[in-house]
Amino acid sequence: MGIISRGFQGRRRGDDERLPPGQYLTEDFPVLSAGPTPRVPLDRWEFTIDTEGGQVHRWNWQELRALPSETPTVDIHCVTTWSKLDTRWQGVSLDVLFEDVETAAEYALVHSYGGYTTNLPLEDLLDGKAWIAYRYDGEELEPRHGGPARLLVPHLYFWKSAKWVRGIRLLNEDWPGFWETAGYHDYGDPWREQRYEGD
Amino acid sequence: MARLTWRPARLVKVREETASARTLVFDVPGWPGHLPGQHVDVRLTADDGYTARRSYSLAGPDGVELTVQRVDDGEVSPYLTEVMRPGDELEVRGPVGGWFVWRPANPAPVLLVAGGAGVVPLMAMLRARRASRSATPFRLVYSVRSPEQLYYADELAAPDPGVDVSVVYTRTAPDGEARPAGRLTAADLGPSGEADCYVCGPTGFVEAAAGLLLELGHDPARVRTERFGPTGE
Amino acid sequence: MSADYLDGNALAGPFAEIFAADVTVAVGRCASCGLTGPVAGLRVYAQAPGLVARCPGCEEVVLRLVRGPDAAWLDLRGTISLRIPLPGAGA
After folding, report:
1. Distance CA A100, CA C51 (A)
2. HSE, side-chain direction, 13 A CA sphere, residue A180
3. What Pfam families has UniProt attached to this entry (chain C) (predicted)?
């Protein structure tokens, strides 16, 4: 640890059992971004799932919004060490979107408008663990927080919850995404503090 | 030149600049000196291990002197402007940045364009000019919301031969000010001959001011910019 | 709405920890659109898990830098080359 600055508090660690190791509580919702915010007109928006066999499943905005949605309240953990508890979302469970998808792939590469990518095992997207979220805290999801729609996969560090999500490519082998090719962990479990490659 | 590491810095003196900004003077053993326009990275560590890092421009020609504007919902600037007392410590890494610098040996006329707190590295250039007894013509155009926001007001008002200072008020002009309040225009920056231009301020200001300089015919290769934004807090 | 980036001057500190020469004064060429300019003129997105520097012409990623606790990762694949000014040889 470096020199301690007397009286500097920054964010608090607290002793909440819901806070993973090395994380600090925040009340606001910091905006993290690796590039300019893409503006995606809803009439041109689409979400796709591409299987390892070359099949493409496609939803436009109306089709996505017509699907049954859920309203998860979850804790989110950013690798830059802030955590935010009890965030309220609305979106479509990936289980719904994968209902008619035939696949034996083990890995998923999520890609976004603007070019961002992130990888994770397919099983981490299923069984009620992930959503395509389009509302946050009772409002349509703002572009700076990933609107019109973002992936929400709260049990992993938040960089896996790709903003401006555009689709998922299913792969037989793990293919590292934007941050995973620059030192960040392929899986990113906050409770095991898997921040960097090798953690 | 060796790779840089963090050095301890002890606050020795504080000067209030405005109601929400102050200058902090640090003692940094082994400080190697710097060029005006360079900055330092500052690291704060809380007693529970939490750390935060920010970059600040050096305000003076010698030593580590920073002018910090308080950002109300910020995490670092409220500490630096309200909590930190002489004797307290933080860590600095620097000086860094060799692009946005003025070298006293350069005889070319200089045009400085500041937006708000962006005046800090430009002030370091003005002070370095004075300290080096340079005769290079300098012009500073300083855009600020209202008279209460002006940094270094007395120093800028004092006569400094060869230096022309004009303040552009964007919201509220003081009594007797001929120019009505309003955003920076080409007329505020001209007419001016060839000059090395340094523009510093928030991103939107820098884009606008650099655009005006190009409109006025300044050579893009001689317009250097420094934006501060999310981490400039 | 584009006030979310800094310029390449913000890379000076993180680079100074890795290299002895000041990389921000180096002139590079964007691998995507071919624009040349100083590293100091790139657009840097710093509110992120790492630093992402993009070309001011085409907004493609030119370089990325991630600082871990005991290592740094540097990705330069968006850069064709960097011309780094150095003191004269034998000086």
Report:
1. 39
2. 21
3. DUF6510
Q: Answer yes or no: pTM beyond 0.80.
A: yes
The values of phi and psi at residue B80, to 5°, are: -65, -35
Reading the block at residue A78, the tokens are 């950013």
Whole-complex ipTM? 0.92
Which three-class secondary structure state does DSSP give residue C12? helix
Q: Answer yes or no: CATH 3.50.50.60 is held by domain A42-192.
A: no
Listed by number, the residues of chain B in 197-226 with a beta carbon closer than 8 Å to a beta carbon of chain A are none
> Contacts of residue A32 in chain C, CB cutoff 8 Å?
47-49
- Separation in Å, CA C87 to CA B1, B57, C22, C91: 11, 26, 12, 7
Residue at token pair 């310029």: C7
pLDDT digit string (tens) for B37-80? 999 999 999 988 888 999 999 999 999 999 999 988 788 999 99
Q: Do B226 and C24 touch (CB under 8 A)?
A: no
Q: Which CATH number does B110-228 carry? A: 3.40.50.80
Question: Residue ranges per domain, chain B?
Answer: 7-96, 110-228
Contact A193, A22 (CB under 8 A): yes
